[in-house]
Amino acid sequence: MPQTDDAQTEPYYDPYDFEIDADPYPVWKRLRDEQPLYRNEKYGFYALTRFDDVEKALVDWRTFSSARGTLLELINAVNDGSFEIPAGSIIFEDPPAHDVHRKILSRVFTPKRMREIEPKVRDFCAANLDPLVGSGGFDFITDIGVDVPMRTIGMFLGIPESEQRAIRDHIDDGLSMKTEGMPDLSSYDVASQAQLFADYIEWRAENPSDDLMTDLLQATYVDTDGVEKNLTREEVLGYVNLLAAAGNETTTRLIGWAGKVLSEHPDQQAELAADRELVNQTIEELLRFEAPSPVQARYVMNDVELHGETVPAGSSILLINGSANRDERRFENGDSFNIHRDIDHHLSFGYGVHFCLGAHLARLEARVVLDEIVKRFPKWEVDLDNAVQARTSTVRGWEKLPVLLP
Ligand code: HEM
């Protein structure tokens, strides 16, 4: 039994406990108030939960490194030598290599490509949502939340439509936790994951097109040693895998949260239906309120003083951006959802050198999807008895989120 929220006991946070994950906010609040530097003895990690602490640590990559992975289980597996970070994973690199590689990847998000996305996302929405008009309900995840990000990132990468579903299901399966407790990465099949795209990349090398994979294959860059290079096939594969995973999972969860949170706030749901101009700020508040990727792990490079304690070099630390976003020291009534909130910035897309490269794309997709849903279905009620939470240590959200239409 988790010891989540009993004021008599010490607060306990465990990222691999399904019951805590169902609603981590009470324990995160206790950590912010009682133990702003938290230490979990079971798994041997530290955690920061206040906005200012998390923001500072995300920026300070010299102390808080991503190079051993950004999941606790990944850092452990790299530490004990059972897992090697694959090439091309910019999210698992520190500067200066990170900056060189990020620049290549950011070049392929061209303004022209971004402009072309919106009408296509609207078409995907129409294809998925129009058949549901007049029905008694639909599922925010399986009927729309999965498809739109998958088709968008698939189109970006140049993955044929016929193969998108299989690839997405494979990624989803790879992230899914079958049981509680820290996942064992020794059985994780990197080769089979990579193989998904390997043949396709070879084919693209022979048959260039106007897509991101072609751009990556043709990209030249000056490395940290001053030499002009092309990306290796392994690096291209790493980039493509990262984009496919990052582009699919998180955006799907955000769309799911829109379904749940708005249903639970019918006044704000009605306001949005009456004035769809509110959709941008609704998405921003949803991102703050329910961070789809709420925990970023780091490896501590040198002894660091935090809240009067020394965190020794070699420790793992969790930067809980999902908690920071609700910190009352930063956001008044942080635990309440308010689409009229004035948000300077939240930490749902991270901060600093690893700030999400897909943030613009994710916001665009979520905005269009929510707009197209509200246009057709101004009111819905979540059917929580039949909803299923996704179990992963990376993203937090719903696997199934059925809603009923009046
Ligand atoms: C709601 C949707 C999304 C959320 C909440 C999200 C969240 C995040 C977060 C928190 C980070 C920083 C990780 C860290 O500091 O260790 C990140 C990085 C990243 N995201 Fe996203 N993301 C979303 C959508 C996307 C999309 C659609 C793409 C791609 C098309 C994408 C690509 C990336 C990449 C490449 C990085 C690594 C950047 C770097 O290391 O420099 N993300 N994302």
Structural features, described:
The longest helix is centred in the middle third of the chain and has 32 residues, at 233-264. The chain has one domain (25-404): Cytochrome P450 (Cytochrome p450, Orthogonal Bundle), CATH 1.10.630.10. The protein is built from 16 helices and 14 strands. Helix 6 (111-129) runs antiparallel to helix 8, helix 12 packs parallel to helix 16 and helix 14 (279-289) crosses helix 16. The mean pLDDT is 90. It has a 5-stranded mixed β-sheet with strand order 1-2-10-7-3, with helices on both faces. A 3-stranded antiparallel β-sheet has the order 4-14-11. The chain has a two-stranded antiparallel ribbon with strand order 5-6. It has helices at residues 18-22, 25-34, 51-59, 72-79, 97-107, 111-129, 140-145, 147-157, 161-175, 190-206, 212-218, 233-264, 266-274, 279-289, 321-324, 359-376, and strands spanning 37-40, 45-48, 64-65, 137-139, 220-222, 228-230, 296-300, 304-306, 309-311, 316-319, 381-382, 388-389, 398-400, 402-404. With 406 residues, the protein is α+β, with helices and mostly antiparallel strands. It binds protoporphyrin IX containing FE. Residues 58, 66, 70, 90-91, 102, 153, 242-243, 246-247, 250-251, 254, 292-293, 296, 348-350, 354, 356-358, 361-362 line the site of protoporphyrin IX containing FE (HEM).
